[in-house]
Amino acid sequence: MSVEVAEADESGWDVDPDDDWGVAVIAAVGRQLRLRREAVGMKVPDFGKAIGYGDDLIYKVESGKRIPRPEYLDKADEELGAEGLISAMKEDVAKVRYPKTVRDLAAMESRAVEIGVYECSHIAGLLQTPDHARVLLESWLPAYSPKDLERRVAARVARQCVFDRAPAPALGFVLEEATLRRRVGGTMVRRQQFERLLELGRLNNVTLQVMPMDSGAHSGMGGRIELLKFADGTGVGRSDGAFSGRPVGDLRQLRILELRYGTIRAQALPPEESLAFIDQLLGET
Fold it and tell me: Cβ of 150: how many Cβ atoms within 10 Å?
């Protein structure tokens, strides 16, 4: 890889200055990289040439101003003879890649034994393909920069590791029919998204339902609802149409959201009919 290509690829890995934990992690990683480079007597130009990156990028990484990619850390580990100690930093560095709000949500989702989501404006993020997520995020205003866009797509997709957990959590989703019919992306993007929904909807721990457009008014008309329940009996929920959209953990407030979500599920198509409907849309696409 040329220095020019490497630096271009690195442009999407800026540190969020408002993310205190992320800033601390990247500063520590940069400091370790600098100390190890100096310990073996390598100057920045020589080190950059050895691992295929420019001097400016080396300085930014070592000063904690740029997030290094996994391959950067692997090359540095090998060149500096760190015997895996530098490569081991990739786990924490990977977490810093994503916006803090997304990390916090992903952390809660990773602990939840039950997740329930109702979406009225778009397909739930946990169900989106990367291409579908990219098209959605490209439509937001003010527009994301290319580097921030890819960072957010990666963060959204990374949250989907919840489907690979063992033991598997109970996952429930209710999507408005309009979110499925909206032409987000081209034919292939839409087909892949429908195929992804069918794949996930057939998992034993996943319940996927569609709220038909010809249904009457329901308790989700105020906006999105998300409920997470944890093994210790506690929970957290959020709804655009309740409690000013803030996350809540109070049992009385959670009960209100649970009541609304339960009513929505009762009015939506049953899971089998919902999957048949999605399969029909796939055939029409």
Answer: 18
Say if strands 170-176 and 235-239 run parallel, antiparallel, or are unpaired.
unpaired
Interval 87-131: pLDDT, tens:
999 888 877 776 666 677 778 888 999 999 999 999 999 999 999
Give tens-digit pLDDT for 160-195. Answer: 999 999 999 999 999 999 999 999 999 999 999 999
Q: Rounded to 5 degrees, what are φ and ψ at 18?
A: -90, -5
Q: Give me the helix-helix angle, 20-39 and 70-80, nearest 10°.
A: 30
Which has the closest alpha carbon to 128: 160, 170, 83, 97? 160
Q: pLDDT band at residue 13, thresholds of 50, 70 and 90? A: low
| DSSP line for the chain | --HHHHHHHHTT-B--TT-HHHHHHHHHHHHHHHHHHHHTT--HHHHHHHHT--HHHHHHHHTTSBPPPHHHHHHHHHHHT-TTTTGGGHHHHHHHTS-HHHHHHHHHHHHEEEEEEEESSS--GGG--HHHHHHHHHT-SSPPPHHHHHHHHHHHHHGGGGGG-SSPPEEEEEEEHHHHHS--S-HHHHHHHHHHHHHHHTSTTEEEEEE-TTS---TTTT--EEEEEETTS-EEEEETTBGGG--B--HHHHHHHHHHHHHHHHHSPPHHHHHHHHHHHHHH-
Contact 65, 88 (CB under 8 A): no
Give pTM, 2 decimals.
0.71
